[in-house]
Each structure stands twice: as C-alpha cells, then as structure tokens.
Amino acid sequence: MITRMKGACMITDFFIQDFFTRALIAGVGVALVAGPAGCFIVWRRMAYFGDTMAHSALLGVALGLLLGLDPILGVLAVSIVLALILAGMGANRTLASDTVLGILSHSALSLGMIALSLMQGIRLDLMVYLFGDLLSVGMTDIYLVLGGGGVSLALLMVLWRPLLAMTVHEELARAEGVNVALVRVGFMLLIAFLIAAAMKITGALLITSLLLIPAACARRFANGPEMMAALAALFGAAAVTGGLYGSLHFDTPTGPSIVLAALLLFLGSLLAGRRRSM
Amino acid sequence: MTLDSTPLVGAAGLDLSLGGRRILAHVDVSIGPGEIITLIGPNGAGKSTLVRVLLGLVRPDHGKVVRRAGLRIGYLPQKFVIDAVLPLSVARLMTLTCRATRTEIEAALDETGVAHLVGAQVQTLSGGELQRVLLARALLSNPDLLVLDEPVQGVDFGGQAELYRLIGDIRDRRGCAILMVSHDLHLVMAQTDRVLCLNQHLCCAGTPAMVAKDPEYLRLFGPRAAEAFALYAHGPHGHDHVHTLSGEVAPVDHAHEGRLHDH
To answer: Which of B55, B89, B98 sits opposite A223 (nearest CB)?
Structure first.
C-alpha cells in the first residue's frame, strides 16, 4: 500500500487526470484491505458491528461539515470514538450484543440524517453519502482513501496472528499470553479507518458489503485463513473493477453497481464450489 | 527444566462467587515444577473455574494467584469448536500462538501419535484425534506447565487409558508440570503425583492412595471410589459396599467393577 501511494503520487500529473482511473485506484485500494479485514468480520460474526460502524459514518459526515473539515475526517473521528466505546463496552448480561448493536446502528443513522437535514445553508446530495460516489473521487480523496486503507493494512498485518488466535479460541489465546483487550481495540480501530476510507466508494449503507461478500466468496476456495484473506482481497478488487465498468457502461450508480458485481461473484462461487465438491 | 523449586503457580485463599452462587471457597493450590496434579470433583464443583482462575482468565473475589515470571503455559481447553466458516488445517492450528518450523510442527504431532493428520482440516477430526492434535499444539511452545481441562473427553474408553499414559510419558520426557482436570479418577491415578479433590472447597488432597482413603473423597465419589480401589488395590478394608452420592451404603455390583459408570 505504501509503494502504491508513492506510485500514485509520482504518476499523479500524468495519468490520474482521468476520473475513471482515479476511481479504480481508490476502489481497488480499499477493496484489497477490506477483503482480508472482512474475513475476520465473517469469522467473528461481527456483521452487525460492521453495520453499526458504517451507519455511524453519516454522523461523521455531519460533524465534518459542521466543523468545516473534509467529511472523511469527520467520519474517521466518529468511527474511532465509536470503536473505542464498543471495545470498552463489556458484555451486557441482559441484552445480546446484536440487539445493542442494532439499536446503536439505526440510532446513529437516524441521528446523522437529522443532523444533516437541520444544517442550514449547506446544499448536499444525501445519496452520495448513503450510496457512495466513486466516480467523483478527486486527488485529495485518493490520498485520504489510500492513507486510511494503508493504516488499516498496517494494523491488520501487525494484528494478524494474535487476532486469528483469539478468533479460534479466545481463552486459549489469553492463557497463552495474547493481550486480547488490546488486539480487540486494534481491530476496531482498523475497521474505523477502513470505513472512513470506504465511505466514498460505497457510502454508509453499503460499506459492510465490501467486508462480507468478498470473504464469503473466498470461503469455498480456501483451505487456510491466509489463503481465504488473499482470495477475499482479489474478489473484492474484481467486484470494484467489474462494478465500475458496469456503472460506466449501463450508466448506473457506482456503489450499488459494485455491490451487485460482488453478488454476481458470490453466486458464481456458489456454482463453482458445488462443482468442486461434486 | 530449571532446578528452581519455587512453585510455577501458587494461589492462596481463593474465593469466587458468580451470579450469587459460591463457586470457590478458600482454595489454596500450589503447582511445583515437573509434578502432575489432577483436579477431581463432581459436576459443578468449580474445577474448570479454578483452572481459569489459575490461568488468569478469571479474577477471584478474594485471594491471589502468583505465576512465576516468564512462565510458559500450554493450554488444552475444555471446549474447542471451530466454526466451519474458518478454514483451518492442523498445521496452521499448531502455530496459533507461537511460530514454529514445519519440522517442529511434525515432531510435536509425532509425539502425540498424529503426525499423519498434519494436512487435515481441523473440522474433520474425530474427538480422539482432536484431543491429540490439541495436546501437540500445547507442547509446541515447549511449556513449563501444561494445563489440560478434561483431556480425554470425546475419546473412546480404550483410547482414554492410552491418552493418560501418553500424558504421563510427556511429563517424564519433558519434565514439564501438568495440571489436569478429570472425572475419571480410576484411570488417572497411575499417572498422578497429587490429587486435589474439589467441591467448592478443597475436600482433600494428597497422593492418589491417600485421597482414595479419605472419608471426604469417599463421601463424594462413593461408587467410583470402589472402582478406583478395585484397580488400585489400596483398599483400607475388604470393600464389599460403596457409598452413594447421598452417603448411603449400597452393595457393590461386582459385574460392573472396573467399567465406566455413568452417573
């Protein structure tokens, strides 16, 4: 990702004038990290957690606009705060965690919508924040997206082994010296950075699909966690590329086009997986 | 193994209540280098909880646990289920918490007799295979202390004695201490240095022969105690009756002696 960033800087003036190339770089960059990170979301059954974090991004957009910052920075700030709150929240004895996350998720979304609607004098297209607008990615966005993606990737590489250990058996990992609380916070921060980076690509409502669908596609072809992560990165990149071309060709919104491309890959993986197991 | 004889893990005055229920009361435990300690007790006696307190997974209400600095622990948990959504081979499971070369991985699997499973997916293993793989995994980090919570669960009766023998061999070969939780007293006796009999508090402790004679133990483990005597031949008197869990004296059914009773 670092070399990718440097590369992006160097060739900026020559090639990235083209909006489509910019979209492709940002989208594929995020997908390459979202795939492996999404494997943990799938393995750890944290889809609701991903949704909650993603939906809160809208609140971040409102905050960013209110403070006159780039909305992505607002998203990052809100996601980090929420990640720390969720990581610090102990297991509730009387409510299941998916119930708590479901309440938070929709409350954050509603709060964000209301905050945006109350803002005077700001004309904005809500659809962009809900469903993404990859084709409007400018150079600043590319740096922000690749920066956020790069931080996520670095965190993922550092956390990989302990995170996998506690995913397989949390008490075993703890007993053998893994600092479970620290790794959990690290993973939640990773997701926070990733969501900030992915906001432009699929928007708050569809971010979780970039995490879940490529990982689900990869499961049938993988015989180890590392292989599943690598395949998920490839499937994610393929979905973004396919979605972008589809969006251009059929003149459809990019975020939903990417999700549908991912869905097609998933359906294809089901068929291929069935043939493999026969 | 160092010659240092200070305990690997020492715990004193452990008290723990969960949800208003007393789980542990005034428990003292000390695990010395190289010794095999077996923790026995009826269901709900707090055996697994005590293990988790000693491992530092649960904080006691009172009392303290001291682990020797730099202590390496290999842990075989009571429940180990891997979701089918996570693809995981035996080889990858082995390096879950430590790095190891392929040769080291195969050597550890060989030590527990399952080297041929190195490429298998964990979800496809039988109960006995899984326990042996998990034992090999716990050995891979070359631990000072092995903690085995019900190591023979899911293993058929013939395999249980074999697995206990293997655990005894591992201690003899490596000199690591072993803390083991078990229901099957009559099988573990030959491999155990010290038995701790737990029922919220420590009812009795000592060598297997001493514990087997202890009235507290007989009260808790009536019918099983008789089996243990039958196998161990240390009965204090001609044993023609057993004590049921309620303390009543019941005649021994000799046809069942030495078999696994299901209570």
So the answer is: B89
- Name the residue with tokens 């003292």: B28
Interface test with chain A among B18, B57, B85, B146, by most A beta carbons within 10 Å: B85
Pairwise CA distance, residues B93 & B85, whole Å:
15
What pLDDT tens digit does each residue of chain A (278 aa) get? 445 555 555 555 445 568 888 899 999 999 999 999 999 999 998 888 888 989 998 899 888 888 888 888 899 999 999 888 887 776 556 777 788 888 888 898 899 888 888 886 666 777 888 888 888 888 888 888 888 889 999 999 999 999 999 999 999 999 998 999 999 999 999 999 999 888 888 888 888 999 999 999 999 999 999 999 999 999 999 999 999 999 989 989 889 999 999 999 999 999 987 765 54
In sequence order, what are the residues at sequence separation of 6 or more whose Cβ sits closer than 8 angstroms to the Cβ of residue A128?
A: A136, A203
Domain B1-72+143-212, second-level architecture? 3-Layer(aba) Sandwich (3.40)
Tokens of A265: 């890959």
- Closest to A176 (Cα-Cα) out of B48, B125, B6, B67: B67
User: How much is the pTM?
Assistant: 0.83
Which residue on chain A is closest to B147 by alpha carbon?
A: A175
Tokens coding A264: 């097609």
DSSP string, A146-207: HHHHHHHHHHHHHHHHHHHHHHH-HHHHHHTT--HHHHHHHHHHHHHHHHHHHHHHH-TTTH
Q: Where are the beta strands (DSSP E) in chain B?
A: 9-18, 21-31, 36-40, 62-67, 73-76, 145-149, 177-181, 194-199, 201-206, 241-243, 249-251
From the candidates B86, B121, B124, which should be mutated to test the interface with A, based on the most A CB atoms within 10 A? Answer: B86
Residue B142, chain A, CB below 8 Å: the answer is: no
Q: Which of B72, B88, B141 to mutate to test the interface with A (most CBs of A within 10 A)?
A: B88
Q: Mark yes or no for CB contact B97/A224 under 8 Å.
A: no
Whether the Cβ atoms of residue A217 and residue A235 lie closer than 8 Å to each other: yes
d(CA B178, CA B168): 9
Nearest to B87 among A169, A173, A224 (CB): A224
Domain parsing of chain B, residue ranges: 1-72+143-212, 81-142
Task: Kindly list the domain boundaries of chain A, sorted by start residue.
Answer: 2-205
**Tokens 């996350």, residue located:** A101
Does the CB of B74 have a partner CB in chain A at under 8 Å? yes
List the single residue in B85, B97, B141 with the smallest CB-CB distance to A178: B97
CATH 3.30.70.2210 fits A2-205, yes or no: no
What does the alpha-carbon distance between residue B2 and residue B4 come to, in Å, rounded to a whole number? 5
Residue A44 token pair: 């750890």
Chain A residues at the B interface, defined by Cβ less than 8 Å, are 42-43, 161-162, 164-165, 167-169, 171-178, 219, 222-228
